[in-house]
Specification:
Blueprint lengths: L2 H5 L9 E4 L5 H10 L2 H8 L5 H13 L3 E7 L2 E12 L5 E9 L8 H16 L3 E7 L3 H9 L3 E5 L2 E7 L5 H13 L3 H8 L2
Parallel strand pairs: 4-5
Antiparallel strand pairs: 1-2, 2-3, 3-4, 5-7, 6-7
Helix pairs in contact: 2-4
The structure holds coenzyme A (COA).
Length: 195
């Protein structure tokens, strides 16, 4: 990741808050998935999904140890990033990541912000590699993965991205320290209280 990556955010000061979802946030996460439009659902799950599937999926995530980072605004989860642990081919635990941003907020930089936050979380767990899979026509997800230096492979209509986390980038740490400090400003605190 480079400085340009960290600087790329159209919603530098979003009205909501990016935070890890709590067990009690399951209904909010479920509602977020159910609000995804048909195309976003197809892009996210590589196929057609109905509400029952999404309800069961959200329940599984929250009961099987999946980490879910949410973008929370006015008491609603409007975007999410998930981290699912999977054994890698060499036996080292790694994680599959996935993203969902509601249509009205897409293409405004939120996916990038969720990605940055997820990477910090993944480093905290000690993962050295992340995987992301999407269908080959998903231009937004491919662009997002490339921005985070994923090495993309195209096979049988699918794109798999592998992100080597390696050692922590000090510029990334600085970015988050700055974000944490600016979060203490009165206007941001007011926003946080509103969530
Ligand atoms: C994929 C997704 C998470 C991206 O979130 P986002 O908030 O729209 O992404 P950002 O605004 O941060 O933009 C990320 C990159 O995608 C590009 N992008 C966004 N929407 C795009 C579109 N419709 N077509 C092409 N590129 C697009 C942006 O230009 C940016 O590229 P850059 O880094 O080269 O500038 C979001 O579109 C989404 O939820 N889609 C439906 C579900 C899905 O596809 N999930 C991914 C499968 S796991």
């Amino acid at each position: 990741m480079n400085l340009q990556t960290l600087a790329h955010t159209e919603i530098d000061r979003p009205a909501g808050l990016i935070r890890q979802l709590r067990p009690s946030d399951l209904p909010l996460f479920t509602e977020h998935l159910k609000r995804l439009d048909a195309e976003s659902r197809r892009d996210r799950f590589n196929g057609v999904t109905d509400d029952d599937f999404l309800r069961a999926y959200a329940h599984r995530c929250f009961h099987e140890g999946v980490t879910v980072i949410g973008y929370v605004q006015n008491g609603k989860v409007l975007g999410a990033a998930e981290l699912h642990e999977i054994p890698d081919e060499d036996g080292e635990p790694t994680a599959e990541i996935a993203f969902s941003v509601e249509r009205s907020l897409q293409h405004k930089g939120l996916g990038g912000r969720l990605f940055e936050r997820l990477i910090v979380q993944a480093r905290g767990f000690g993962y050295r590699r992340l995987r992301v899979t999407t269908h080959s026509g998903n231009a937004a997800m491919k662009a997002l993965a490339r921005r985070f230096n994923a090495v993309l492979n195209f096979e049988a209509g699918e794109t798999t991205g592998v992100i080597e986390l390696g050692r922590s980038d000090p510029r990334e740490v600085t970015h988050y320290l700055n974000a944490a400090l600016s979060a203490k400003t009165p206007s941001n605190m007011r926003r946080a209280v509103g969530d």
